[in-house]
Amino acid sequence: MRKTKRYIAxxxxxxxxxxxxxxxEIKRAFKKIIMRHHPDTREAHERGAYEEAxxxxxxxYKTVTDEEFMAKVRGLxxxxxxxxxxxxxxxERKYKQxxxx
Length: 101
Ligand SMILES: [Zn+2]
Fold this sequence. Notes:
Bound molecules: zinc ion
Helix content: 40-55%
Radius of gyration: 16 Å
Mean pLDDT: 92
Largest sheet: none
Order of helices and strands: HHHH
Number of strands: 0
Number of helices: 4
Structural class: mainly alpha
Low-confidence stretches: none
Distance between the termini: 20 Å
């Protein structure tokens, strides 16, 4: 899964957060969501579906709380890193020709 601009926006959305939400708050929201989706709270036959759902939230949480990655995202989006740098999504294209278009 490439971490494109669109994907990052979706991550915030499913966590009920925005890029301005403090990490502590995202952490709390994530814990609540995960408790609700935790496979151990479900009947055995339902577990597969819940594990799938949990994975989406876990990936979203890991993405938006990855400080190094998000610093690059913010740097490129704000322009402080320069738009000619390689895009954060891993496409090997320059930011301005990729997620920065
Ligand atoms: Zn990109």
